[in-house]
Amino acid sequence: MQIMKPHVALLASPGMGHVIPVLELAKRLTNHHNLHVTVFVVSSDQNTSVEQLSQLVINSPNEKLLHDVVLLRSDPDMSCLVDPDASIVTKILVMMRVCLPSLRSNISSMKFRPTALIVDLFGTEAMAVADEFEMLKYVFITTNAWYVATSIYTPTVEENVLDDHTNRKLPLKIPGCMPVRFEDTIEPFLYRNDPVFKWYLSLGMDMTKADGVLVNTWEDLESKSLEALRDTKMLGHIAKAPVYPIGPLARPVGPPPVLGNDDVLDWLDKQPAESVIYVSFGSGGTLSSKQMIELGWGLEMSQQRFIWVVRPPSDSDASGSYLTAEKGPAGFSDYLPDGFVDRTHNVGLIVPMWAPQAQILGHPSVGGFLSHSGWNSTLESIMNGVPMIVWPLYAEQKMNAAMLTEEFGVAVRSKEWPSSEMIVERDEIEMMVRRIMVDNEGGEMRYRVKQLKISALKASSQGGSSYNSLSRLAIECESSLQCLKVKAQGG
């Protein structure tokens, strides 16, 4: 039997922040570039099904995924492999390592093996599997090009420069890019003696060894950082691997993928245009008990309509529900100010644990988004023309928030970033909500974010910069397939 089109494998690490863009990439490669795609998803949740994952990217009842989704189960009891108190990054890395034999076995048993393997940033150890099977290997960074530039540059930085950044709190200068201020820095820099920092250094080096680095951004959004990654006078001599800006890859607006949330959209249907602020901290973000109380008071004092996705607080770990985003008790009254639900029932809607975010942000009644600044949520907000209040919690979210406020001008933020030591008080929350929803400043940001939306749609449409970027990747996979055919025929 003759292979008619190239076969590409994708590997997604646990957590919706990585699974969703990987599945969207699979969908784009399948539907727009005629590739056969197999998606491997690492999961520790024994209740997760392939059907549930596939539903995440279906946009209409008649649409079907044309690629395969394979679950690689990781032992849900990690206590024998990693300290229960270890960071979320350490736990994910262990889960990815445990699943490597299963990935290898699955690829080995395929009748028509993939010609390329695309891994996300937690899956770079799997590039060794690609080498074993003589596959092309790509790294898919599900966040922005500024993060890529920082990650690739960091392993080359002298120790004293890193000391100046982490100890003296001086900006880390990245050639050709915005400097990374200490207050915006990513978590690995804060714990340089932790294994996570060593992993971060290896990530930067692994990216340079790949056949290409895919980034969930587009040319017009981050032209400066992308130029730096290509220019040999700035970062090009370090980056080496070609950079493919292929974004935005974000969930499109369509019918809710999970039944049981019609009441949220029904409630929105009854609200005036651009009158509701949506409050959510992503699939894994959590606030402290005190901060939830202050947020509740701030929303109430703002006198604005709101939808708030509430999950139990965590006083120790802002990413505490990253791997358990849809689990936990559905109750919420114990976490909120006394009488809050009764006092706000005419203007607010509380949603326990999970909500159909893409559909909410795409609703005409939504006029603002209080967000943790995760890149998926950021792109979904941009794609729906919704300005933001940025409230970063972990990972690279402070960098994202800095870009949104200072470079793009589509968001407002607290005077100081929230942390375990610092609480954003209700008066400031009220002020930020009103800046977005009531003041003229909010209207100006709304205009700017809608211009970014136009730019994003242009980039991802046929003939656009991101579409063409993925086309080049598809051509490389086709060329690799042709080489395999010639080799198989003894040519």
From TrEMBL:
One of its GO terms (molecular function) is coniferyl-alcohol glucosyltransferase activity. It comes from the Eukaryota. Its EC number is 2.4.1.-. This is Glycosyltransferase. The keyword Nuclease does not apply. PROSITE patterns: UDPGT (PS00375). It comes from Acer yangbiense. Belongs to the UDP-glycosyltransferase family. Gene3D superfamilies: Glycogen Phosphorylase B. Keywords: Glycosyltransferase, Transferase. The keyword Plastid does not apply. It is an enzyme of class 2 (transferase). Transmembrane segments: none annotated.
